[in-house]
Amino acid sequence: MEPVGTREELARRHALLQRFNASFLISSDVDAARAHGSAVERAVQLMNANQKRTFDLSLESDATRDRYGRGSFGQGCLLAQRLVEAGVPFVEVMMGDGVGWDTHRDNFTRTRVLSQEVDAGMSELIEDLHQRGRLDSTLVIWMGEFGRSPQITTGAGRNHWSRAWSSVLVGGGIRGGQVVGRTDRDAAAVVDRPIRVNDFLGTVCRVLGIDYTRETRAPGVDRPISIVDTSKPVKLIDELF
Questions:
Q1: What is the DSSP letter of 209?
Q2: Percentages (nearest 5) of helix, strand, coil residues in the chain
């Protein structure tokens, strides 16, 4: 007896489903039924696409996987490299064990471990993109949505801090090798060249060739949605160009 789930078995199930759907559409040719059929067909195309091999990290050598680091972030960076190679335009790699950099306790030990994982994965990603000639056309962004407090908590941790934090940009044709801005000695406040969130996002759009002043509309939402908040003028980070 043939094991359930082989390519041949799935093809037979798909053909049977198509016959059922065709019979149903004869009597109930409505938008919802057609949308369901379209979703199924696109899902089957995705399941059978050769591009899904991109997600199979077992095709990489053990040495390559070890260089990236065997944690979820390192392997995510390796997958990101494969997705970029396959032509995927936007890829996000999460740092995560469910807590990540939210170091409210034991900040110093956890930050050391997290930094080692980030260093291996991100450096290998950048090196691979460079070796493959894709770094100048790929913008790598390392960032979070806030920083950590200068004050240490009773649990040797750090709390959320929105007044100052750093982001890293690599590739994309920008001028690297520089630090833009400066905090005070406690990293509590920006004292030189402050960069607002919309300045940062506007600059990213500029690097990627996206018009950050454009507005879009989400399905079912009857109001314009700005790509970047332009209620205040966006000051691009000119040092990067």
A1: T
A2: 45, 10, 45
Give the chain's radius of gyration (CA, Å): 24
79 near 73, Cβ under 8 Å? Answer: no
What number of H helices and E strands is found in the chain? 6, 8
pLDDT at 4 exceeding the cut of 70: no
Give tens-digit pLDDT for 162-199.
999 999 999 999 999 999 999 999 999 999 999 999 99
Q: Which amino acid is residue 188, in one-letter code?
A: A
Sole residue written with tokens 């920083």:
147
14 sits in which H/E element: helix 7-27
221 Cα distance to chain centroid = 25
Let me know the angle formed at the C-alpha of 188 by 240 and 186, rounded to the nearest 5 degrees: 100
Separation CA 26–CA 17 (nearest Å): 15
CA–CA separation, 79 and 28 (whole Å): 43
Tell me the one-letter amino acid at 1. Answer: M
Strand-pair partners of 168: 142
- Reported confidence tier of residue 3, pLDDT bands at 50, 70, 90: very low
User: Rounded distance, CA 236 to CA 205, Å?
Assistant: 10
Strand partners, 171: 139
AA identity, residue 71: G
pLDDT, tens digit, for every residue of 118-166? 999 999 999 999 999 999 999 999 998 899 999 999 999 999 999 999 9
Going along 98-205, which residue ranges are E strands?
139-142, 147-148, 160-161, 168-171, 182-183, 190-192
